[in-house]
Amino acid sequence: MTESDHTGRSARRATIESRRIYSGRVLQLDVDTVRFPNGSVGELEIIRHPGASAVVPILDSPDETDPRLLLIRQYRYAADGFLYEIPAGRLDDGEDPLECALRELREETGFTAGVVEPLGGFFTTPGFIDEFIHAYVASALIPGESRLERDEFISVETHRLSSTMEMIARGEIVDGKTIVALFLADHQRRGRLQES
After folding, report:
1. Of 12, 24, 37, 94, whose CB is crowded by the most CB atoms within 10 A?
2. Rounded CA gap, 43 and 23, in Å?
3. Residue 34: is it exposed, middle or buried by C-beta count within 10 angstroms (0-12/13-18/19+)?
4. Chain centre distance of CA 133
């Protein structure tokens, strides 16, 4: 049996030994000797990640039938081009996930949020990385100036929530965290509309 912390992660009681193979600016690579649920022992490579936050920025009231929201179009070397995404970024050491979401929103779009609500969280690729993303929806946005890092190439676009769902269906939005967070935001909005 395992215990879970606030991110939904299980305590690593299955780890017998861990060897650090690589340590970089963004992540670390370990080879862990683990005890599997059936009692057998084996080795697994795992990328350690500090976790992240992502935010769906809504320009209109979240209760709007089809609100406008902000998407960023960001250059991603691993994808060999630009991707539509929502603002997101890594947690700094000891940083609260909500504060990270607000920081990333401000840095990548220039907007600050008057209202922020949690959408939940999810693992990105649990087969080999422990990255957990905390998702939020932000509204009552106040414009300002973005502060991009030197390796960030971003433009900000406005889209209706319904059009983002169509973009997902057409394969124009292929970033996993963005797809999950947009579906969570749409689910939350539909629940509100049914209540009213």
Report:
1. 12
2. 19
3. middle
4. 4
Contact between 88 and 54 under an 8 Å Cβ cutoff? The reply is yes
Between helix 161-169 and helix 176-195 the angle, nearest 10°, is: 140
State both tokens at 48.
């350690």
If DSSP codes are grouped into helix, strand and coil, which group holds residue 64? coil
pTM value is: 0.89
Quote the strand ranges of the chain, DSSP E: 15-23, 28-35, 41-48, 52-57, 68-76, 81-85, 88-90, 112-123, 132-142, 154-160
Dihedral (Cα; 83, 85, 87, 88), 10-degree rounding = -80
pLDDT in tens, 98-135: 999 999 999 999 999 999 999 999 999 999 999 999 99
pLDDT tens-digit readout, 133-192:
999 999 999 999 888 888 889 999 999 999 999 999 999 999 999 999 999 999 998 887
